[in-house]
Structure formats: C-alpha cells, structure tokens
UniProtKB/TrEMBL annotation, chain A:
Pathway: Polyol metabolism; glycerol degradation via glycerol kinase pathway; sn-glycerol 3-phosphate from glycerol: step 1/1. CDD domains: ASKHA_NBD_FGGY_GK. ADP binds at residues 13, 17, 267, 311, 412, 416. NCBIfam families: glycerol_kin (TIGR01311), PRK00047.1 (NF000756). Its EC number is 2.7.1.30. Inhibited by fructose 1,6-bisphosphate (FBP). GO terms for molecular function: ATP binding; glycerol kinase activity. This is Glycerol kinase. The lineage of its organism: Bacteria, Bacillati, Actinomycetota, Actinomycetes, Geodermatophilales. Sn-glycerol 3-phosphate binds at residues 13, 83-84, 135, 245. SUPFAM superfamilies: Actin-like ATPase domain (SSF53067). Residues 5-252 form the Carbohydrate kinase FGGY N-terminal domain.
Automatic annotation (TrEMBL), chain B:
Signal peptide: none annotated. Residues 1-62 form the HTH iclR-type domain. It comes from the Bacteria. One of its GO terms (biological process) is negative regulation of DNA-templated transcription. GO terms for molecular function: DNA binding; DNA-binding transcription factor activity. Keywords: DNA-binding, Glycerol metabolism, Transcription, Transcription regulation. It holds the Pfam family IclR_C. The keyword Transcription regulation applies. This is Glycerol operon regulatory protein.
Amino acid sequence: MADRYVLAVDQGTTSTRSIVFDRSGRMVSVRQREHRQWFPRPGWVEHDPMEIWANTQRTAAQALRDAASSAGEVVAVGIANQRETTVVWERATGRPITRAIVWQDTRTADLVTRLAARPDAGVVRERSGMDIAGYFAGPRLRWVLDSVPRARERADRGELLFGTMETWLIWNLTGGTDGGVHVTDVTNASRTSLMDVRTCRWDPELLAFFGIPETMLPEIRPSVGVLGTASALGQPIPITGALGDQQAALFGQTCFAPGEAKCTYGTGSFLLQNTGTELVHTRSGSISTVAYQLTGEPVHYALEGSVAVAGALVQWLRDALGLIATAPEVETLARTVEDNGGCYVVPAFSGLLAPHWRGEARGMIAGLTGYVTKGHLARAVLEATGWQTRDVVVAMAADSGLQLPALRVDGGMTTNNLLMQFVADALDTPVVRPMVGETVSLGAAYAAGLAVGLWADVEALRRNWHRSAQWSPVPARAAQLSAEYPTWEKAVRLSIAWGDG
Amino acid sequence: MQSLERAAAILQVVAGSGGTLGVTDIAAAVGLPKTTAHSLLRTLLGVRFVEQDHQGRYALGQGLLRLGAGHLDVNELRSRASNWADALASRSGQAVRLATLDGDRVVVVHHVFRPDDSVQVLDVGTVLPADRTALGRVLVAFAPHRSVRGVVDGGRAEVTAVRTQGWAVEDGHLPGTVGLAAPVRGSTGLVVAALGITGPPEAVLDGARRPRGRLVAMVVESAQSVSRELGWHG
C-alpha cells in the first residue's frame, strides 16, 4: 500500500512554507517563499494578503509535485499561521480592502488606551481571558472599520469578511468567491479578544465593546477536524487541521499532558505550557490561551509567555555593534570568557512583554566596569534570553501550580549549546530538543493527519517524538544562578524605571 | 620583498617535503644561512603558516588552511549543519557527530542523539582519537598539512584509501561501536569537517563486516548536503 502523507502550510511572518510529511513525521519535501514587509509609517507593519495567497498556492503546488515522485499520497492539509495578523476582504470579489495588519504593528496603541479607560473594560479580561492589548486582532479589526473609507457601513451590510491568516487561506483554498468556507480555529479565535474563552463562541458583549458586527466573523471550529476541501491545489484535498503557529509548535512537540511545555527561540521567544481542560486564572503575567481542540473533545488550554527580544538581541550584537559576523558566532565570543563579568543586558527594545507587560521599559546594559570585554557582553546577551525564560516560568508556576518536568525547545537558537545549558541551569530543569526542528509545520501536519486517521491518537504522535539533544542542569551551577537571579530582577526594575522617565 | 620571497620558498620546500623537515634541511634547500631560515620560520610559526612537532621539525600549519577556506567558526558550522545532521540521525537510526580539526586534535562540534530516546549525554567539545575513529581518519586523510596525516597507522596507504573512496569506517570511540564518516567541504573545496554516524556493529556492518551500502550512501550524501550549505559547488 502506498504511504500516506500530509501537507503542512506554515504561513509565517516573513515567509510561507509548504512541507510534506510522512507518517513518521519526517519531511518528504519542502518549499518556501518570502513575502514583502511593508512599513508605511513608524510602528506600522503590513503584508499583502494576495501575495501571501499566491505564495501559498505556489509553494504548496511545488511541495506536492516534489512529493509526487515518492510513493505516497497526500491525504490532508494542515495550516499553521502567524497569529493575530488581521485581514478584511470583500465577500463578493475576494479582494482585501487594505493590506493585512501584522501582529507586530503598534498602530492601535491609542485606540487600546481609550478602550481600556472605559468603565466597562473589565469585560475583556473576564470573557476573553486576556487584558485588553494591541497585541490581539480585535483592536486591529476595529481600526480597519474606523479608518478605511466606508468599511463600517459595508461591514454592517454583510459585504466584508474578517479573518486571521488561516481564515483567509482556507477561504481561498476552498473556492474563495465560489463557495469558500469562512472558518477559523479555536486557537486563532482566542487571539482576537472577541471570543469567550470558556464557551469558545464569539461573545456578544465583547463584540459590542469593540464595535464589531458579527456578520463579518468566521465560524469557530476545533483545531483538529474537517474544515473544508481544498480545491485550488490541482487535486481535492481535505483541510483538516489549523492552529496558530505557537500552538502548532506545542502540538508538534507533543505537549499533550498538563505541565508539558515548549519554548520556541526565534527572534523572540514563546513559551507555552499545556494546562489541561480547565482554564487557569492568571495573576502573575502569563496569558491563558487555547492550546488546541480535537473535534468532539473539550478544549485544552495553555499558559503563554511571550518575550519580544531573544535572537533579535544577538542580531543587534551582529548588525548594530558589529561584534560578530554571524549569529552563531556569539557562542564563540561568549566562550572567550568564563562568566558575565558582572554585566547584565535587559533587551527591552520596545518595552517588556511577559511577565512584566511594561511597554515603557527601555533596554539597559547594567554593571559596566573597565573589566567588561566584548566576551562578557556576549555572555550577558545570551544570559538575557535564559533569564527571560526563567521570568516566564516563575510566573507560570505561580499561576498554574504545575511543575515543569522538562522544557522542550525548538528554533534557531537551540544549536547554541552555551545558551541551552544556561537555560537548563537557570530553570534547574532539563532542556530537550526534538529531532524534527520544524515543530510549527509538524504540529499543523499532526493536527490534519490525526483528523483523517493517519495517526490513531495523540499517543501515536508521541511515539514519533525523539530527542536529538538534552541539556541537564548542573546542581552547583543551578544554585549559583538562583543566587544571581535577584541581580537580573534588579536590572529589569531599572529598565522599567528608566522608561518611566 | 626579499624576505617574502624567501618565506614563500620555505613554504614550498616544506609543502614538497612529503613529511616534516628540520631547520638545517630547510636552510640548505633554500640556500640561506641557518639563522636567517630560523628567523623566517619563527615568523611563519607566529601566523601559523607552519607548525612544529615535538621534535622541533616543521610542517605546513592551520593558518594556511584558514587562509584557503576563509575562517569557518565551529558554532556557525554547527548551525548550518544542524538540519542535515538531524535528518541523518532520523534516517539512519544512529547517533550523528560532526567533528573538526583543532591543530591535530579531532574535536566533536555537534552531536545528535540516536533517535531511540535512551539515555545519552551530549559530548560536544570531546576530543576523539584521530587514528581510532572514522571521523578522525577522514579529517586526517584530507588534512592539507602532512604533520597531521602522519598520526595514522598505516600512513600513506590508509590516507589514499580514504581519499579515494570518500569515506572511512573504523571501530567507534565507544566500546562496541562502529563509526562511519565522510568529509564536509567548505566553499573553496578544502575539507573543513567530518560528518558521521556511530552505532552497534550489527547495525552498521553487513554479514561480511563491510559497512552497509545504504548507510554509506546516507553519510556521504548528508556530508555533501552540508558542503553545499557551506557554499561548495564541486
């Protein structure tokens, strides 16, 4: 019998990737295409939805063609996407009325400040599970309705559709103006501030608060289950999985039990911990979000801690300071010294996200003396990412009461042995890296394959997960870092105080 | 410019010697007083264009290799090789290591666990015996400077065999294991690393105790993929 494959589409911030996976979770083919970043004003970041749709069709067709030479048949499509990026388009023509507003875009800051000052603003946290913030899609949709000519009256007449990227792609893949299915998955819907995080339905009070007409919203569906049939890929293939990218990484890392957690180390770092089927009320700076939902099963929740600057700090060392030629060389430079020499770097380039949520904070290099060399600075840069992971883990432990058995890691920085050992020591927890680094795409493939029976259950997926490396905490070093942690916390307080100015 | 010409002549003599040379032989070969030759050799040692063995004899040095390859940082190398190393471990079912030469030491710069979830310990930074590992044999066979090649038992015949077939097989550095490795080339074609698998003999070898062809092909192809990643188009 021919092998059966799954196509995963990872619609990311800088590129769209189409990857075909086999039943063992191994890559059969991969195609990638970058799209243009539009920066029309300071703080604004936009993508062209038509370009992204074209790149999706093109990379998917290429990946399917590459895989056709193998003995397998592609039986399902799964989608993972950059979260919170907002698209509004015409139902009748399929044309976006403006470029997509990307998750990094800060144009809604004033709007959010105004909304947060309203006496009824408490409803947002109570229903959506998250404080009102420009980070989420709802305020961006409101901005479009307020700012694009005639958008609100057209939305009220039902002429416009809203979606995050997976919604936009599924609508187009399933026919667009010719019967396109208008759906979102529950993880993406949880990032809008418009969904009741307990019932997983659009909440009338939240819609009223943000001034969003329900007619433009997609139907909320489980992450794992039939969403529609892709008719635009040359052969009809069911679309049976969709997840926001960080939730997809959690799924790809097979973190299915409460307490299991993953951290993706890229430009920023994103730590998600599965908290099971009960929603955790957060007080310590982590966010409660939907992890995934299988059709016919209860929603699984997660705590999330997003850190804005991780690998971006290494890039800064490379591009702004010119201390290294390539990002991996930071480890070489850091290994020229034994320790940080008393130096701490707080990379609050545009404020601090989890667990501090202080937008006014600004970056800081603390502890400079004549003794500090570029080697110490490189150490401090890597340690900043480790310390920030500890900040997030401390907050999550306070909120969930769950112990972290081990931290599963992925992303480009996981080839940095110095950093990974530091994280293990700073958390006093083993850090493990899986064999398949493409956890986002793999998560989308797993979701889609699970829905069509390619894998029997999540336990079958767990058996596909293999460790490629492990960093174990060294007790003496862990104790030493625990003693140093208050110094890092002091540096964070200083960076917040500096921004308060 | 005279000293530059003299230094070039010394490098040519050392390169052409087929082994290591003492300062007396070098001075005689280039027709210089021994003190002058010694002074030039000290400068060449300083920039690592030559190196000295424990008997004080001279061979070509690592500095020349870096001159040809452009300096390749080992952490950069690991980052570029990581996806291919993962894929090799996944397909072969064996542990994968990437090693480079540091002087005449064979150092592990990347290690991917055998994908069976057994307890394994990262050994990045470990120095391997050059003559008793497949990784070492590959690096030594392709080393441009002869002082390093001299460490292998069997000498030139072994070096030629590895160079000709493009891979090496040897008992693993851990008891009861067998290693299989192939060269990774940098953008100029010089060998900058060796990539290989280590596993139990029954997995790596066939009934005739030869490495399984399927695994040889995987290791060689993976090493070539890393070479392409590093910009080699040979």
